[in-house]
Design goal:
Layout (H helix, E strand, L loop, with lengths): L1 H6 L3 H26 L18 H6 L6 H6 L15 H11 L11 H8 L1
């Protein structure tokens, strides 16, 4: 109701932007991860699976494009190798852990990661 009262928007326009457009964008970004990240990019951890590391998908979805790593180490909450790649979702989860809203965050042994990568 704030857009209706403060910016003189119609109720339909407010609902369309705030609910429907947001839902459509979030669903399309999920579909992008499940299509482009399985077709385009590198496979540094397991060359026999279709999941790939895709930088463009990572940038568009705030860190969800490191798909080969995610499929090789599915228990790791960060979904990216060793924490030095762009992953805004990992930062959000780390902040939630700092304030007690996320816990038991699992990671992979750096030696296991290095072995799979080499």
């Amino acid at each position: 109701m704030i857009p209706v009262w403060c910016w003189v928007e119609t109720i339909w326009n407010s609902f369309s932007i705030a609910a429907m457009a947001r839902y459509g964008l979030s669903m399309n970004s999920a579909f992008l991860v499940n299509s482009a990240a399985h077709k385009y990019g590198d496979r540094p951890f397991d060359k026999y699976i279709q999941a790939r590391e895709n930088t463009a998908v990572t940038l568009l979805t705030t860190g969800e494009g490191w798909h080969n790593y995610h499929h090789v180490f599915p228990w790791v909450y960060a979904t990216s190798e060793l924490g030095y790649t762009f992953n805004l979702i990992k930062v959000l989860i780390d902040v939630m852990a700092m304030i007690g809203l996320a816990y038991d965050l699992k990671t992979a042994n750096p030696n296991a990661i290095k072995e799979r990568r080499d």
